[in-house]
């Protein structure tokens, strides 16, 4: 809920959002972060609305929906040509202590034709990388909150800026209307599960790919292509052995056939690495980005 976290939590994934140094700041951090002025316009049991200084807005709709846009809202009754609109919509549903199901969408009225050209799985690769960069930070933060106590969450974090207002507003809503706890259907002992290894915490196959038709279809196609490339590399080598002295007579021809075999094998290895990183697990270390 803090828009100022983007250059830091997603370091190396979204580029520098601030292109120029702010002369009013003594230091300019290398991530390209900057102050984001926000204020809570309304807050009640149904959620809250936060306005951004550049006319962007974000709204939390209790209990699980959060949406907004960095662009100004379209005024009702306007008959002018519709301006470009872009929204971020997140539905985060707690399913068990320490686990949530995230459903997201990015509706827009510009560049829609790209969706007919670029497959969904290609978009999902980038979106999953962004979520992965959040997951580990949130996992650690959740345990810091638990250690400090749900009523003393402020002691586990530092929230001094106006861009933290939505985090504070949500925590206040959670405390006031939920008594700082989720009403699980089955009684729990209030303890978070042990921290798993990173490959389990940030795995992508069961958390997304298996449930996504586009990604699962792309994975099957790429695996088939990987096998085909390996078979092709072996077949080319076999062809060279059989055709040596008959069809393949010159050094140039033999070099071309060997190069083709090596190229097929190298392509299969690259594809295997691509599949592993984008459909199963890819570590994200903020310090190395």
UniProtKB/TrEMBL annotation:
InterPro entries per UniProt? Cholesterol_7-desaturase, PaO
Pheophorbide a oxygenase domain mapped to chain residues: 61-149
Where it sits in the cell: the answer is: Membrane
Q: Which Pfam families match?
A: PaO (PF08417)
Q: Which domain of life is it from?
A: Eukaryota
> Which residue ranges traverse the bilayer?
224-243, 255-272
Q: Does the keyword Lipid biosynthesis apply?
A: no
List UniProt keywords, sorted A-Z. Membrane, Oxidoreductase, Transit peptide, Transmembrane, Transmembrane helix
Query: What is one term from the GO cellular component aspect held by the record?
Result: cytoplasm
**GO function terms (MF aspect):** chlorophyllide a oxygenase activity
Recorded hits in PANTHER family, A to Z, give: CHOLESTEROL 7-DESATURASE NVD, IRON-SULFUR DOMAIN CONTAINING PROTEIN
What name does UniProt use for this protein? Answer: Pheophorbide a oxygenase domain-containing protein
Q: Which organism is it from?
A: Triticum turgidum subsp. durum (Durum wheat)
Q: What is the lineage of its organism?
A: Eukaryota, Viridiplantae, Streptophyta, Embryophyta, Tracheophyta
